[in-house]
Structure formats: structure tokens, C-alpha cells
Amino acid sequence: MANQEELFRKIISHAKEYGFIFQSSEIYDGLSAVYDYGQYGVELKNNIREYWWKNMVQFNENIVGLDAAIFMHPTVWKASSHVDAFSDPMLDNKDSRKRYRADVLVEDYIAKIEDKINKEVEKARKRFGETFDEKMYLETNPRVVEYKTKITEIKARFFPALDRNDLAEVKKVIEDLEIACPVSGTRNWTDVRQFNLMFATQMGSLSEDASQIYLRPETAQGIFVNFLNVMKTGRMKVPFGIAQTGKAFRNEIVARQFIFRMREFEQMEMQFFIKPGEEMKWYEHWKEKRMEWHLSLGIPASRYRYHDHDKLAHYANAACDIEFEFPFGFKELEGIHSRTDFDLNAHQQYSGKKLQYFDPETNESYVPYVVETSIGLDRTFLAILSFAYTEEKLDDGSERVVLKIPPRIAPVKVAVLPLVKKDGLPEKAREIFDILKTDFYCQYDEKDAIGRRYRRQDAIGTPYCVTIDNITLEDYTVTIRERDSMKQERVDIDALHQLVSEKVRKNLME
RNA sequence: GCGGGAGUAGCUCAGUGGUAGAGCAUCAGCUUCCCAAGCUGAGGGUCGUGGGUUCGAGCCCCAUUUUCCGCUCCA
């Protein structure tokens, strides 16, 4: 385990040192759990996204793409139940580590005062016997009046504060009332926080008439709200899918493990709309298909596993994860969920629009069921990076660090290297570079010894190095070096483009 | 969120109160016809940030921030 932690640290260092991932706003001390992709990171990320997209959209006639906006009507999140699920103001007692809802604490406190009033009434009833006038007593007894006034004051102060989301005032009320934790008995409270994972912002530039909207916490809802549009304009017939990639935002309470859990992250999702009753068939289908996609990247199957959910979310009737063995253990990479008709039904209710499919065979309309595949792009990036990072001891005793990224998704495809920086080799190399660069992301490098340049390319995972030497000038051939084996072969320059194309464009699913 | 550790060059780190360093990396040359650590030279740091103690702080104290580990939470 210590070795694995060590390895993970090395991967993080490597990712920074070679321009894959930087911490956000680093020169300002960074921003917690937010990361930027550097010059090679963005290439790898784009390539993974494109590889997913082609396999989902281009290779499946009944799946189409979508790019819904991050901003959506606030009611979308009411319908999806994201707003209400977890949005109470909460605070923790630092000593007992118990978490309470602020309104519950205050209401309990008010209940205690009411209790005291009742006790006074009971005492008085015993004392005055038959002649006791409860109504009169409640209005005139100084102690009772004091209690009642206090309750009124608390209510007048606390509930408006709750309504206008003034969390500082909410906390101040609790402090002023000297409310203690029932468990620890102390008044050592954290600040009151709104425990909602959604990032809120406002639309409209003047704050007075701006309305609160959210940055989407998942991309799926953008698909559901466009279900009707896509189905009608695309003449889609069930079963069909809508795929989308894009950013999503969650206020994670604990965000850790590098880019594994970030506050801003990217999802690649596909919602597959099906006839009710067929959900298990399609659930199994996508469960299998998605695993095939992962394995096509060439990472050993032993590093993946399914994890079936026992406890299901409110919207699902079957769910599993595809987990990957990261250096910090098996963790979720992708989720496959049978979401029933929960989302479309909810949107149908809230919007008042009929979100149904007319089946011409049965002459009936129904709300389709949905099977979702939802994969984290950043997590896939991390999975590939942690698989690819390799430290090797070579036969001559030296060491090298190489990223064994599948050529199809490697950031730089080809490095073009003149063996030495003279004798016309740089000029020749430039010619070859120009031939390749229109179709492949290439690098030209003439600095330092050839071996050092190979190692530099190994470190960023470039699968092929083309080297120009004296023989090139004579017979128009170059050597091409393969990253993992370090083997070289001599090929005609004329054949180079075709050769590279075969190697880096190969569809891995075949 | 709680507790503990850490933050010095792009990376890994040394520096126990008295003039900020090393290796690797980077850049400019030289050398080199195939796998880094040959040669010469150069650039790069308000020591995470802000306060304090002191004649003097990278070092001591406080706060803050980032990060790591453990616990907790995760609709």
C-alpha cells in the first residue's frame, strides 16, 4: 500500500512536470479540488472524449448527440429532486461531531419554553382549583407572558432569517439563545451551512431582479428536457439514445484524490430511451457494451470490475458501477443505471408537457424508460494515466519513465527528430514534419542527444519517433521507433503517412 | 467537517536565528550517426500568504490558505 501511495504521488508529480495537469489558480495558492489541464492534458482529454463520442454516436445509428447548456431553468432541478433532496441549513457541534438542522434546534428550544408555560399552567391549576381561568392566566401571569414574548421574538427573528438565507443570523440566533448540543452539552458550533451540492448563481445582471439558477450537477437533465425536441426533429424511434459530454459542478464536502473527485468535472453520458418492460434487457446490453469499450483501450481486464448496487437511488430499479483499480484502490469510473421513467415523468408533471412516445405498432403512447450510461471523463483520464505510467529498467542499466498511452488517444502522435543538427538533416526533418502535421499532432525537436529526445517523448507518451539520418538523404527512408518496445524499423518517407495513420487511427473496438 | 503532518527553483529535496543551496529539468553554445545523466555558459526564489517576537526570521509564535494521511459525510 505504501508503494501504491508512492506511485500515486509520482503520477501526480509527473502529470504536473510534463504539462498534463496543474492545480487551478496555482499562483494564488490554488483553489481547492479544482484542476486545469495543461498542453498535453488537454490533448489526451480531447482524444478520450472523441474516442467515446465516435463509439457512442458515430457507431450506433440510433444514438445522436446533444450539447445542452449548463444553465437550465431552475424548475429542472426541482423536478429532478436535486433542490429538495439536501438543502437544509445545517451546523455541527464540534465536540460531539453531531450534525443538526438549524431549524430543528430552534424549534426544539421553542418547544422547551412552551413546556415551561404548560408547567406553570398546571401548577396554577392545582393552586387555584375550580376557580382557575386558564385564558386569563395565560394573558396576565408575568412569567408566562415573559415566555410568550420570548417565543414571539425568536420566531420573528429566526424564520425571516431562514427565509432570506441569512445563515450568519441563523447562527447568531442559536448562539444568543445559548442552545447547547444535547449530546455534548457544549455550545461549540460550526457556522451554519446550506448543505446543497449545487452551485447557485443568478441570471440577470442586476441583483434585485435576478433569479437564482444553478450550475448543473449532472448533464443528464439536459438530455431529458430535450427528449421531445430530439425525438421529433430527429425522427427517432424507440429504442434510441442521446449522448452528451460536458461540465458538471458539485459542491463536494470532501474533495480529494487529485482529479478523482473535483468540484468542476466532465461527464460523458448517454440516455437510452426504451419501451417499458425492456429495461433489464437493455441494462444488461449496455453493461456489457460499456465494459467492452473500456477493455478496448488495452488495459488488462483484471483492473476493472463491476459493482452492483444493493441500495438503489430513488430513481433507479437497477444500477451498477464499472470500477477501475486506481493506485488508491477500486473506485467508480462509470455508472450504468436503469432509471425507469422517473425523470421523464417528473418533467412531464412539472412542465405540463406530454413527454411520450407514440408506438405505431401498438397504437399506444407511453413514457419511455431510460437506461443511462454515465462515465467520468476526468476519472477515465486518471485511469489511463495511472495505467500508462511506467518506470522501466533497461538492459544497459539505465532507467526510463514512459507513458504507455494507447496510440489512438496519445497527445502527440509523432515526434520528428533530425539525428544531428547539421548536414541538412533539420531541413529534411522539417519537410517530413510538414507532411505529417496536417493530420497528426506532431512535434519537431532537434535539441540534445537523440537518446535524450527519445526519453522526452516517452515521458509524454508519444507512440512514434521518426528519425532522419544520413541515409535519409541518400534513399529517402527514415527510421520509425515504437515507444513501448523501443524497436526501430526503416521505412520509405512516402509510406510514412499511411503507416502512422494505420497505427494511430485504428479503431480499438474492432 | 474534525484531528495530525507538510508547503524552500519546473521536479525531488537540503538548509535549527546571522549573505538562500544541490541534483535533475529548462535555455544558448560545443560535441555526438540511434536510446538521458559529456563540456562551457545562462536564466529561474519577495522560502504558500498575512501578522507578530527579535538588532536580525526560510527557521520561533498566531492566523489564513493549499495539500497529504486518518476519521466523518457523500441525495
Explain briefly what this protein structure is.
With 510 residues, the chain is an alpha+beta fold. It is 40% helix and 24% strand. The model has no long low-confidence stretch (mean pLDDT 87).
Walk me through the structure.
The protein is α+β, with helices and mostly antiparallel strands. It folds into 3 domains: about 1-70 and about 210-395, BirA Bifunctional Protein, domain 2 (2-Layer Sandwich); about 85-195, 2-Layer Sandwich (Herpes Virus-1); about 405-505, Rossmann fold. It contains 16 helices and 23 strands. Strands 3-9-10-16-13-12-11 form a 7-stranded mixed sheet. Helix 2 (about 40-60) packs across helix 12 (about 375-390), helix 4 (about 100-130) packs antiparallel against helix 6 (about 140-165) and helix 6 packs antiparallel against helix 7. The longest helix is centred in the N-terminal third of the chain and has 27 residues, at about 100-130. It is elongated and about 125 Å long. The mean pLDDT is about 85. The protein binds one RNA strand of 75 nucleotides through helix 1 and helix 14.
Give the SSE layout:
Elements: H1 2-17, E1 21-23, E2 35-37, H2 39-58, E3 63-65, H3 74-79, E4 89-92, E5 99-101, H4 102-128, H5 134-140, H6 142-163, H7 167-176, E6 193-194, E7 199-203, E8 211-215, H8 220-224, H9 227-233, E9 240-249, E10 264-274, H10 279-296, E11 304-308, E12 318-326, E13 329-340, H11 342-351, E14 357-359, E15 364-366, E16 369-376, H12 377-388, E17 389-393, E18 399-403, E19 414-418, H13 425-437, E20 442-444, H14 450-460, E21 464-468, H15 470-475, E22 477-482, E23 488-492, H16 493-505
Helix pairs in contact: 2-12, 4-6, 6-7
The chain binds one RNA strand of 75 nucleotides through helix 1 and helix 14.
